[in-house]
Design a protein that fits this description.
The chain is globular. Helices cover 34% and strands 23% of the residues. Bound molecules: 5-hydroxymethyl-3,4-dihydroxypiperidine. 5-hydroxymethyl-3,4-dihydroxypiperidine binds next to helix 5.
């Protein structure tokens, strides 16, 4: 088995191993197929690793955070004994180490030359992929080559049900069986009773006979082979793994057993071509080419890759969490990150996936209705953090970041209400790009209308100022909480109500039965609709015609002014520097808020307004240590004001978020929103794709060293190829 050829623009490489950075690399080397992902841990394990794999929808209860995505039983495990010595990078000497991910196919490989404590040198090669064509299959291939000795090689391939989520253990053993070549294990989550079944087949090829055994250890069946290897005769093998959960089939145990019964090993050479071909088709739709900047090229592909491996293809009842399926961060919970940051990639390149993600919100609408009811409102109010049911799962209190003995009250679940409009916005964007009337009729409209009811009901009439308001909220900039009339929230709410009324008109004409049904079920009486109109007309949406400035929230301009440049150098966020209350008292912001509004609703604001607000808010934004959601949006807005070089700086900050761990927290998982933002920054920023009700257009703004951008997007089902160079831009319908 030879290592595959490296393609620098498609490869992420690690050339030496440092235990200090291993968890960062585990995140970077996450692989998966939209059903499940595994972090890039070593097959044989390593002290200090965060050994985890996650499958969409497998949540179990936990204190404080309500529910979390469960770390799967470990199916990667492969322990190797070389002439009686355990192979481990924790001991002996690592003479050579090289690991690389080929993003074209999701193939992760590792090549190691290792000298054991007793002085024996072995070359080991590992390769693995999680099939995109056969979502329940993972394959691990290995080669073990003694370089200066001969001796017995023992390989142990386990299925380990004793995994946990750092603090909590979620799996309960149900059943297992082990023979000499195959094993299966069935477990169930403790509280949510979701079963999972895993099967393994171990195949070893050797010049000498292979002795096999199965150790039927409860909750940890292990397949064992022993054989001889020498410099002339290395050994190789495969661990074939199947995974089914109770979410895909009522009987995962039978599904796994049937797959094992049909397994003909070796399998790699049969499974690989179809997997690779499926990836090829995926990249045909989604790839973005950047010429003139290898780092940016790799980073944009990495961002797309990470979103593609987390994207549910067969399941419309799940969505992508803020940390995708790549780490424990945010416990697998879903935020506005999905609809506003990640979804556009799918809407414009893989609309089937976008439809699944939006359908998740339709399936969880009851949870949103429960939240509105609990808060005393009509309609549906989406949770700030969402999981299986759509009920609010934002923790209320968490340990303080600097002093874990103190607790911090988290208010986002109570008052960061803009998420309902973000979801409506994403549905509308999907509809406009795809023309998927059926989705809008059957699902999207119900979401948009019932959340519009919430907005109308939540609006507060201020008799003194003769206007509607939304008080006590948090906008995208979370350095400021309990603010009144956050511009982003108010403008989006008004847009939402307006869109809902237009949608009702559309339904009346194009789907009268559905119209009648929704009007009746959601109690959209003429009085209620008249109230919506009233809110639209009288909702306070801040704007100063003199300066063109939009005040982020009422009283923002009165807060203490800070120029963040004056605080350099620093390596902590403004919130850590000033404290929570301290930051709240200043004009420092965690991420674009007004600029985010200008980005999402460009038709409302002219170029002067964009410029004025860009100039005002940019120096007050914590670009380096604020939210990871900020830099890509900042990059897009810098392009809009004609500053591509400045845009490039912000763009690279987003592009490096995980690859270079610029925020120091990549070990918690991929920053999914940043990854989606990277794609948006290239497409909507540098290439300048603009979408409006009348169609699309291009207004590029390339950094000076970029020679070409090329990508495809889908417009109403038709692929469009875009090419942008410093001199020209062109689009052709493919
Ligand atoms: O949704 C974001 C929020 O905007 C900033 N804090 C982190 C959340 C999850 O990524």
């Amino acid at each position: 088995m030879q290592p595959s050829t490296l393609h620098p623009l498609w490869c992420i490489e690690q050339s030496h191993f440092d235990p200090q950075t291993q968890r960062h690399w585990e995140t970077v080397f996450t692989t998966g197929n939209g059903l499940f992902c595994t972090r890039g841990v070593f097959e044989e394990g390593h002290r200090g690793e965060e050994r985890a794999a996650f499958m969409h929808g497998l949540f179990d209860d936990v204190p404080v955070h309500f529910t979390e995505l469960v770390n799967l039983p470990d199916a990667l495990e492969l322990e190797i004994f070389l002439n009686g010595e355990r192979f481990s990078l924790e001991q002996g000497q690592v003479l050579e180490f090289h690991r690389w991910l080929d993003m074209r196919t999701g193939l992760l490989e590792r090549e190691v030359r290792w000298r054991s404590p007793q002085g024996h040198t072995t070359r080991l090669h590992f390769a693995r992929f999680i099939s995109l064509a056969d979502p329940h299959l993972m394959l691990i291939r290995f080669l073990i080559h003694p370089l200066d000795y001969q001796g017995e090689i023992e390989v142990r391939a386990g299925l380990n049900g004793e995994t946990d989520n750092l603090q909590y253990k979620h799996w309960e053993w149900l059943a297992q069986e082990t023979s000499s070549q195959q094993a299966w294990l069935v477990c169930s989550t403790r509280k949510t009773n979701l079963p999972i079944a895993l099967g393994a087949h171990l195949h070893v090829e050797s010049h000498t006979p292979v002795e096999r055994a199965g150790w039927d250890v409860r909750n940890h069946p292990v397949l064992v082979t022993r054989t001889f290897a020498s410099p002339e005769h290395p050994i190789s093998g495969e661990k074939i793994v199947y995974i089914y959960s109770g979410r895909e089939t009522p009987d995962p145990q039978s599904a796994v057993r049937a797959r094992l019964a049909q397994t003909e090993a070796p399998l790699w050479d049969h499974a690989w071509p179809v997997h690779a071909h499926t990836w090829e088709r995926e990249w045909e739709a989604c790839d973005v080419i950047i010429e003139g900047d290898e780092e940016a090229q790799r980073a944009v592909r990495f961002s797309i890759f990470q979103l593609l491996i987390a994207a549910p293809r067969q399941d419309e009842r799940v969505s992508i969490g803020a940390k995708t399926l790549s780490g424990y961060g945010y416990r697998g919970h879903v935020f506005w990150d999905t609809e506003i940051f990640m979804l556009p990639l799918f809407t414009y390149t893989r609309p089937e996936i976008a439809r699944n993600l939006l359908s998740y919100r339709w399936h969880t609408l009851e949870g949103a209705r429960r939240k509105a009811r609990r808060n005393g409102y009509k309609g549906a109010q989406y949770p700030w953090e969402s999981a299986a049911t759509g009920d609010e799962v934002t923790p209320t209190w968490v340990p303080h970041y600097a002093d874990p003995t103190r607790l911090i009250r988290i208010w986002t679940g109570d008052i960061e209400i803009h998420i309902s409009a973000d979801i409506a916005y994403a549905i509308h964007q999907y509809w406009r790009a795809t023309g998927d009337d059926e989705f809008m009729r059957d699902r999207g409209s119900e979401i948009i209308l019932d959340t519009a009811r919430f907005w109308a009901n939540r609006a507060e009439w201020n008799p003194d100022r003769h206007r509607y308001e939304y008080t006590d909220v948090i906008g995208p900039d979370e350095y400021h909480d309990h603010v009144d009339n956050n511009a982003y929230t108010n403008y989006l709410a008004r847009w939402h109500l307006q869109t809902a009324l237009e949608l009702l008109e559309w339904l009346k004409v194009h789907a009268p039965d559905r119209h009648a049904n929704l009007v009746q079920r959601l109690e959209l009486t003429p009085t209620e609709l008249a109230h919506w109109q009233d809110v639209i007309h009288k909702l306070y949406c801040p704007f100063d015609p003199q300066t063109g400035l939009i005040e982020q929230f009422e009283g923002y301009f009165q807060r203490k002014d800070v120029r963040l440049a004056d605080l350099e150098p620093r390596n902590v966020s403004i919130q850590v520097l000033f404290g929570i209350e301290g930051a709240n008292e200043t004009q420092a912001i965690k991420q674009p808020d007004v600029l985010m509004l200008l980005y999402l609703l460009p038709e409302l604001f002219n170029a002067e307004v964009v410029q004025a607000n860009y100039d005002y808010y940019t120096p007050r934004t914590d670009h380096t240590y604020g939210s990871s959601l900020g830099p890509s949006i900042q990059a897009i807005m810098a392009c809009r004001v004609g500053r591509p070089e400045e845009a490039y700086e912000h763009f690279m900050r987003a592009a490096r978020a995980d690859l270079d761990n610029v925020r120091g927290n990549a070990e918690d998982g991929i920053h999914g929103a940043s990854a989606g933002g990277v794609w948006q920054a290239v497409v909507f920023g540098f290439a300048g794709l603009r979408i409006s009700d009348s169609g699309w257009s291009l207004k590029p703004a390339l950094p000076s060293h970029w020679k070409r951008i090329a990508f495809k997007f889908k417009w109403r089902g038709q692929p469009v190829c875009v090419e942008v160079t410093p001199q020209t831009s062109s689009q052709v319908m493919a």
